[in-house]
Amino acid sequence: YLEYYRKLLSRRLIDGTSISDEFEKLFVTQLKRECGSSFTSKIETMFKDMEISKVELADFKKNVRNIAHQG
Questions:
Q1: Residues 25, 62 contacting (CB under 8 angstroms)
Q2: Could you give the 3-state DSSP secondary structure of residue 43?
Q3: Are 40 and 28 in contact (CB under 8 A)?
Q4: Closest C-alpha among 31, 57, 26 to residue 42
Q5: Nearest 10 degrees: CA dihedral of 55, 44, 15, 24?
Q6: What is the C-alpha separation between 52 and 14, in angstroms, rounded?
Q7: Burial (CB count within 10 angstroms: exposed 0-12, middle 13-18, buried 19+), residue 39
Q8: What are the Cα distances from residue 37, in Å, to 10, 27, 53, 67?
Q9: CB of 46 closer than 8 Å to CB of 9
Q10: Could you tell me which residues come within 8 angstroms of residue 10 by beta carbon, excluding any fewer than 6 positions away?
Q11: Which residues contact 25 (CB under 8 A, 6 or more apart)?
Q12: Are 13 and 50 in contact (CB under 8 A)?
């Protein structure tokens, strides 16, 4: 089940089709409580990666706008 959930979650995160990131994180917290952190570490890493990606994308867009205004 966990592998199935992880694959579907990754698709929802990439596509932006998750109903709520908070709901997803709450569910992962419950899984962690029931199954242990070794079962949820990959899923938690996906959330961290998505946050890093959002920050990096925002920085990239800001730099592109700055370059466009300069030239």
A1: no
A2: helix
A3: yes
A4: 31
A5: -110
A6: 13
A7: middle
A8: 18, 13, 23, 44
A9: yes
A10: 46
A11: 47
A12: yes
Entry pTM: 0.78
Q: Residue 32 is which amino acid?
A: K
- The amino acid present at 30, given as its one-letter code, is Q
Q: Is the dihedral of CA 57, 27, 23, 9 positive or negative?
A: positive
Half-sphere exposure of 66 (CA within 13 A, CB side): 6
For residue 16, give both structure tokens: 């932006």
Quick: pLDDT tens for 6-54.
999 999 999 989 889 899 999 999 999 999 999 899 999 999 999 999 9
